Amino acid sequence: MSTLLLCDDHRVVREALAQLLLQVGDVERVDLAGSGEEALARFPVLQPDAVVMDVRMPGLDGVTTTQRLLKEHPEARVLLLSGEAREEDRLRALRAGARGFVPKDIDADGLRAAVGRVLDGEDLLTRAQRRALEAVPDKPGVALSPRELQVLHGMSEGQSNAEIGRSLWLSEDTIKVHAKKLFVKTGVHDRAAAVAWAFRSGILA
To answer: What is the pTM of this model?
Structure first.
């Protein structure tokens, strides 16, 4: 049987999510934390099989909490819930070792599936997507955002916008928005030209 630690600063949200997460596979208990500080304090005591954490919280936000948690407990499996997160926040958390980001508007089945995969020890990002993150320098002024790089890798593998969206837990329309931004930044007009540009620039190998 598995246990989860759910961290969200809104009581009504975490209580509702706890009931939903109890429907995941063999999850028998969902413990709650109302802040990043509380999650850090409770993790070594509870030793949950996975942590589901909101990104936007007062005090320690979800990204900083994830970084500290994984530094102290590298074995922790963290899944972040994001209503709205900056790309640099995603980059920091995923580089720290978070298993993935899922949007807060994900449906119940999608959330249960994502949590189930994390409990099974899976990474929600593919190897190509991890490589894309590693290709982004820490310094500002990067031409492509981590999300745009993930979309670009999906294009290079011949995935449709819908397939890329499913792999990133995003809608097809959201992928189209990222693709348009990618085209503008790279000065191309279609997917094939974007992939060719990426190989010429060394982003894809």
So the answer is: 0.68
21/28 Cα distance (integer angstroms): 9
Residues 6+ apart with CB under 8 A from 42: 5, 31, 33
Can you state the angle between helices 11-21 and 108-119, rounded to 10 degrees? 70
For the structural domain made of 127-201, what CATH number should be given?
1.10.10.10
Which DSSP category does 108 fall into?
A: H
Tell me the per-residue pLDDT of 110-156, one tens digit each, with 9 for 90 and over.
Answer: 999 999 999 999 988 777 667 666 655 554 434 678 788 889 989 98
What residue type is 160 in one-letter code? Answer: S
Half-sphere exposure of 172 (CA within 13 A, CB side): 5
CATH of domain 2-119: 3.40.50.2300
Instruction: Decide if 2-119 and 127-201 have a common fold.
Output: no
CA-wise closest residue to 72 among 42, 38, 44, 33: 44
CB burial readout 26-65, b (16+ within 10 A) else e: ebeebbbbbbbebbbebbeebebbbbbbbbbbeebbbbbb
Q: Which residues contact 150 (CB under 8 A, 6 or more apart)?
A: 125, 129, 132, 133, 164, 168
Backbone angles phi, psi at 91, to 5 degrees: -60, -45
**For the chain, domain boundaries:** 2-119, 127-201
